[in-house]
């Protein structure tokens, strides 16, 4: 489906749609396997989401399997599309639409996001406090908000730690992965462990993913592991144990 398309269930919706929409627009495609118009609209949305320069994430919600979230947002007919920005529904439509209409819809959604001033996170003007807040967010598994704090971090004593934590924040924000491969499954298991603060399991899954990942992905997985090390601190026994495998 591509890196900008994710499958989302009831349990993940708050994190993967509502929270993520503070970072960039999230377009939700409510669909079902038996729905003919859904089979027309879905591939179009996926293709547009994966075009170069796409400014949104497409989240696909199977309404047969996720009735709670469909009911919460008043889905009566499908396909139904809703766009989220800053945690709120800002636009939407129902039914399969031709490509020009869908493109106009996406342009409204993404243009509004580009014109909107970026939300400043409270306390982000103080590097020490900013780093502390990012650590707290990472401990809660909130990678998207942590990423906002860690990007373009001001030079100074905390900049090195911020740079080491950033790959972990990006990994948490961009996962779960929708692929069926073994490496994607390991990524998803690592994120699940990170969010429940089971860092031993998370590091084990990341190490396994690094060993199985294509050559181009190995360096990135190692940076994510380094981010976990930075979060835990060098004195943590897990850091000592797993650093031996990545040096």
What does this structure look like?
The chain is an alpha/beta fold and 247 residues long. The chain is 55% helix and 11% strand. It contains 11 helices and 5 strands; from the N terminus they run βαβαβαββαααααααα. A 5-stranded mixed beta sheet has the order 1-3-2-4-5, sandwiched between helices. The chain is globular, with a radius of gyration of 19 Å. The model has no long low-confidence stretch (mean pLDDT 86).
Summarize the topology.
Layout: E1 5-7, H1 13-19, E2 26-31, H2 36-49, E3 57-62, H3 67-72, E4 80-85, E5 88-94, H4 99-115, H5 127-139, H6 143-150, H7 159-174, H8 182-195, H9 199-212, H10 215-232, H11 237-246
Parallel strand pairs: 1-3, 2-3
Antiparallel strand pairs: 2-4, 4-5
Helix pairs in contact: 5-6, 5-7, 6-7, 7-10, 8-9, 9-10, 9-11, 10-11
Main structural class: alpha/beta
Main sheet summary: 5 strands, mixed
Say how many strands there are: 5
Residue share in β-strands: 5-15%
> What does the overall shape look like?
globular
Radius of gyration: 19 Å
What percent of residues adopt helix (DSSP H or I)?
A: 55-70%
Spatial sequence of strands, sheet with the most strands = 1-3-2-4-5
Report mean pLDDT, rounded to a whole number: 86
Alpha carbon gap, first and last residue? 34 Å
Helix and strand succession?
Answer: EHEHEHEEHHHHHHHH
Q: Work out the helix count.
A: 11
- Which residues form runs of ≥5 with pLDDT under 50? none
């Amino acid at each position: 489906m591509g890196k900008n398309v994710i499958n989302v269930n009831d349990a993940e919706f708050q994190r993967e749609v509502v929270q993520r929409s503070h970072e960039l627009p999230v377009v939700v495609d409510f669909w079902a396997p038996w729905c003919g118009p859904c089979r027309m609209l879905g591939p179009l949305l996926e293709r547009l989401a994966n075009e170069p320069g796409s400014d949104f994430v497409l989240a696909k919600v199977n309404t047969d399997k996720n009735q709670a979230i469909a009911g919460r947002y008043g889905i009566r007919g499908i396909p139904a599309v809703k766009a989220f920005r800053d945690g709120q529904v800002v636009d939407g439509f129902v039914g399969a639409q031709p490509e020009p209409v869908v493109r106009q819809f996406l342009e409204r959604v993404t243009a509004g996001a580009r014109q909107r001033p970026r939300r400043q996170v409270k306390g982000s003007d103080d590097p020490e406090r900013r780093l502390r807040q990012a650590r707290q967010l990472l401990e809660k598994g909130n990678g998207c908000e942590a990423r906002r704090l860690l990007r373009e971090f001001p030079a100074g004593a905390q900049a090195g730690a911020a740079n080491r934590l950033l790959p972990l924040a990006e990994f948490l924000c961009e996962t779960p992965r929708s692929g069926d491969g073994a490496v994607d499954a390991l990524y998803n298991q690592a994120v699940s462990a990170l969010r429940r603060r089971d860092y031993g399991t998370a590091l084990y899954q990341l190490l396994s993913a690094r060993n199985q990942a294509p050559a181009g992905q190995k360096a990135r997985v190692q940076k994510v592991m380094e981010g976990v090390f930075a979060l835990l601190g060098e004195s943590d026994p897990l850091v000592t144990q797993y650093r031996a495998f990545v040096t």
